[in-house]
């Protein structure tokens, strides 16, 4: 076998195509339909979810984020990958108007990010968020949620799945039930879930394409954020989230490296008001 043939085999089976095509498709479709948000949710006030952030590019919503500090937003590494210029919107119940817009100064992506594994990015803002009733940080959970317990999702999207052209951009909310990883894995033969993943389910309340990075919260603490899997209530399967306890130390390490001081959050942490 000549060197060219060996090279082709390595490139095809050890490189790009080592990730199944259906994984690439299911994740990339988000960027083609990025106006479609949460389906089946109820209207929400930003005062109920002051940690919620919207990620914008050219004034268009493409993903969600979570306020962790005055200059720090947590989100998915995958969702920010195509964008060279990102603006974060905080403090508004509409992704189209109101609130405060702040440019992202720096993006820090986990060094082990691949597929759904270690899909985490920390965004450092060019100027600090002014904390108040409509914008404040949330604590990261240090322990995983128990199986079959209720958690709250939020994001900008729709109240039904009947008209996906009705892009109202308003904040919506709903609940999903946590599901153990082994049961969740059974639904996804083409994805390998690891310690950085978690799952939750509600057959009538689902994140959709612009919701990657939107929070999953329980008892005033961030459990994870949406990554993908079942899109838009299509198929009745669990949705895949990050698992915050598995990446919490990495996030805190890089926040501190970039100048975060924990005292700035002490009086401002979000507490349940839903």
Automatic annotation (TrEMBL):
Q: Which UniProt keywords apply?
A: Digestion, Disulfide bond, Hydrolase, Protease, Serine protease, Signal, Zymogen
Q: Which GO terms describe its molecular function?
A: serine-type endopeptidase activity
Q: What is its EC number?
A: 3.4.21.4
Biological process terms from the Gene Ontology for this record are:
digestion; proteolysis
Could you tell me which Pfam families the record lists for this protein? Trypsin (PF00089)
Q: Name the InterPro entries for this protein.
A: Peptidase_S1, Peptidase_S1_PA, Peptidase_S1_PA_chymotrypsin, Peptidase_S1A, Trypsin_dom
State what protein this is by name: trypsin
The organism's taxonomic lineage, starting at the top: Eukaryota, Metazoa, Ecdysozoa, Arthropoda, Hexapoda
């Amino acid at each position: 076998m000549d060197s060219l043939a060996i090279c082709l085999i390595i490139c095809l089976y050890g490189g790009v195509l080592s990730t199944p095509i259906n994984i690439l498709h299911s994740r990339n479709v988000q960027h083609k339909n990025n106006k479609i948000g949460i389906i089946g949710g109820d209207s929400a006030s930003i005062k109920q979810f002051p940690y919620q952030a919207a990620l914008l590019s050219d004034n268009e919503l493409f993903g969600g984020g979570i306020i962790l500090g005055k200059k720090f937003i947590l989100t998915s590494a995958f969702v920010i990958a195509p964008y060279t210029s990102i603006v974060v919107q905080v403090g508004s119940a509409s992704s189209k108007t109101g609130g405060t817009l702040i440019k992202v100064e720096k993006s820090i992506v986990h060094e082990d990010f691949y597929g759904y594994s270690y899909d985490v990015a920390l965004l450092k803002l060019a100027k600090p968020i002014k904390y108040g009733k409509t914008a404040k940080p949330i604590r990261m959970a240090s322990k995983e949620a128990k199986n079959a317990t209720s958690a709250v999702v939020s994001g900008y999207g729709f109240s039904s799945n009947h008209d996906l052209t009705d892009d109202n951009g308003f904040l919506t909310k709903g609940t999903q039930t946590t599901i153990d990883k082994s049961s969740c894995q059974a639904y996804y033969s083409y994805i390998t879930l690891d310690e950085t993943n978690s799952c939750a389910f509600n057959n009538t309340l689902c994140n959709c394409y612009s919701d990657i990075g939107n929070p999953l919260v329980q008892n005033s603490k961030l459990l994870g954020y949406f990554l993908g899997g079942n899109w838009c209530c299509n198929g009745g399967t669990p949705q895949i989230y990050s698992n915050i306890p598995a990446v919490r130390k990495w996030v805190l390490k890089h926040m501190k490296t970039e100048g975060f001081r924990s005292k700035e959050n002490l009086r401002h942490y979000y507490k349940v008001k839903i």
